[in-house]
Every structure is written in C-alpha cells, then in structure tokens.
Amino acid sequence: MSTSDPFRATQDAHFAAADVDHFRWTTDDPAFAPVEDALLAPCLDALPFPCLEMGCGEGGNLSRLARRGHPTGIDRYAPKLTFAAQAVPPARLAAADATALPFADGTFAGVLIRDLLHHLPEPRRATAEAVRVLRPGGVL
User: Fold this and answer.
1) HSE value, Cβ hemisphere, 13 Å, CA-based, for 42
2) What is the pTM of this model?
3) What tens digit of pLDDT does each residue of 47-62 get?
4) Which residues pair with 94 in a beta bridge?
5) DSSP states along 24-45
C-alpha cells in the first residue's frame, strides 16, 4: 500500500502483513496466553453481543470473544483478516477503515477498541465511529 501520508506509510509498512507468531504467542503460549486471558477477561466478559472489534488484526481478541458468540472484526489489512478467518472461524470479518465503518448506526451492543487508536492519524474519528455504531446503552 503506497501513500503520500508518512504516518500511514509507516503503519502500512509495519502492520500490513499478518504476524502469526504474535497471534500464537498471545493465544497459545503457555506462559503468556493465560496472563493475556486474565488481563482481558473482565473487559471482554462485559461486552454484549452483537460485538465489534475495531482493528482486530490476526484475531487474538476475537478468539477470546468467540468463546461466547460470533464477534465481528474489522481491520484495514486484508492479510491479517485472511489469517483471522482461518484462526477464528466463528468471527465475521470485514476489511474497513476504523474511521469509516461499513455498518449502520446502532448495529452493535458492544464495541472493543484495543491497541488501535495510537496507530491512527485521527483517533477521535475512529472513536466517533465506534460510538456511532454502538446501540444506545451499549458497552464500549
């Protein structure tokens, strides 16, 4: 992906490919995966379905959400989504920019944003999109 925006070009160069080792470390490593489970459990357990994860990457968080339902994940990078489709079959996936989500207002009861906002040139736009697709009374 080429771009004239230096910030986006740096992100694209580093994050466009699926990081299989990172996914395995966070989901399967006997030393780290239980720590990640314990860290995320309170947050993920509080998310009602239907649930969206913005910036799902390879699907580490989605794999945990999929233990409870069929989460939806979006990511900008198709290779990450291709991997996530194999790693987390219950998830629904879409290639999308977090600042322009392809969902109607109030679609989701829960929205998760983790490890995404600092990768965006305009994080407030992504946050506004999260709120837009969240149902009234939903959990962000």
Assistant:
1) 3
2) 0.91
3) 999 999 999 999 999 9
4) 74
5) HHHHH-TTTHHHHHHHHHHHHH
